[in-house]
């Protein structure tokens, strides 16, 4: 078992390193002013609204309809919801003496992982299209929670929840479109599927380059001196994924689904934490520090936790 763990650890660690090396391109581009964070923010819209949805729909199109995959789809949605509910429950017990605005940032950071821009590309690298298939369910659930609980918390309870955004967002819509295509096993013309495949291939490198530009703007001094940030990192990177890994083991979730969902649950804090904070007039420095530290520590914690997921 130890040998299997080490082999899996090496495999995942290599894939994590590759993604972070791609992110370093964005880091260098920002520092040299070739492609800065402001450019990255514009590219996020392209990624989130077009490239990521095409990636998800393309995966559903190419996935073979089997009883295992149909059952897995329902289970993945349920476990993604459970992971977010666990994050909500744990975060609700923390930072109660802080202001609503500050507390909201910590709660959002604890609950939401970088599911779309890091976990999904990593799942694709580690377990292939099946990884995207199950990670897409996590992204869809992420969006539902982010547009409700997340916005409520990070705005200090001031933002009004727009019910349309629960469904009419690119992550959810891509799954809503993808599921019927998967269930009906529709075959599109070759030139259409080839186009979608080529666009989908852009998702991982572009997402990581954008991530690199955000990472380049972190205050590296602050991310290692605040004890609160270490506490949130522990919850986000270790406590929540380990608890969910035990749940996966307890209910018998195995194989690629367990690995993909573990990757999503163990990813660093969502990069949109700072974006939402800015949108709802909250502090933007703290979210950047939180994202920065978990992104550094995630290089070490994710391979270990994902390797554990493949052997227990």
Give a concise summary:
The protein has about 300 residues and is mostly helical.
Question: Keyphrases for this structure?
Answer:
single chain; 312 residues; 79% helix
Model description:
The protein has helices at residues 2-31, 37-62, 67-91, 100-111, 115-127, 129-154, 164-167, 170-184, 190-200, 203-216, 227-251, 255-266, 272-279, 285-309. The mean pLDDT is 92. The chain is built from 14 helices and no strands. The longest helix has 30 residues, at 2-31. With 312 residues, the protein is mostly helical.
Task: Compute the separation of the termini in Å.
Answer: 9 Å
**Strands, count:** 0
The sequence of SSEs as H and E is HHHHHHHHHHHHHH
What's the main sheet like? Answer: none
Q: Any idea what the shape is?
A: globular
β-sheet strand percentage: under 5%
Measured on Cα atoms, how large is the radius of gyration?
A: 18 Å
Uncertain stretches of 5 or more adjacent residues: none
Helix % is over 70%
Which structural category do the helix and sheet elements fall into? mainly alpha
Mean pLDDT: 92
The number of helical runs is: 14
């Amino acid at each position: 078992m130890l040998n299997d763990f080490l082999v899996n650890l090496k495999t995942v660690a290599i894939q994590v390193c590759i993604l972070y090396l791609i992110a370093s391109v964005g880091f260098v581009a920002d520092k040299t002013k070739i492609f800065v964070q402001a450019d990255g923010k514009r590219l996020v819209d392209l990624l989130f609204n077009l490239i990521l949805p095409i990636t998800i729909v393309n995966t559903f199109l190419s996935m073979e309809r089997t009883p295992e995959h149909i059952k897995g789809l329902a289970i993945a949605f349920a476990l993604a919801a459970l992971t977010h509910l666990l994050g909500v429950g744990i975060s609700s017990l923390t930072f109660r003496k802080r202001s609503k605005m500050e507390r909201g940032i910590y709660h959002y950071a604890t609950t939401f992982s970088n599911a779309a821009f890091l976990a999904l590309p990593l799942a694709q690298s580690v377990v292939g299209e099946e990884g995207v298939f199950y990670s897409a369910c996590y992204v869809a659930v992420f969006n539902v929670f982010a547009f409700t609980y997340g916005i409520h918390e990070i705005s200090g309870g001031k933002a009004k929840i727009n019910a349309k955004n629960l469904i009419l967002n690119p992550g959810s819509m891509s799954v809503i479109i993808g599921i019927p295509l998967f269930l009906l096993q529709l075959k599109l013309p070759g030139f259409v599927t080839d186009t979608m495949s080529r666009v989908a291939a852009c998702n991982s490198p572009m997402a990581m380059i954008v991530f690199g530009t955000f990472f380049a703007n972190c205050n590296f001094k602050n991310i290692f001196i605040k004890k609160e940030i270490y506490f949130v990192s522990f919850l986000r990177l270790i406590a929540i994924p380990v608890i969910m890994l035990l749940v996966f083991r307890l209910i018998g979730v195995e194989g690629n689904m367990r690995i993909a969902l573990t990757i999503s649950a163990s990813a660093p804090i969502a990069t949109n934490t700072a974006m939402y904070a800015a949108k709802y007039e909250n502090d933007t420095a703290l979210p950047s520090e939180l994202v920065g530290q978990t992104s550094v520590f995630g290089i070490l914690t994710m391979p270990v936790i994902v390797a554990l997921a493949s052997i227990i």
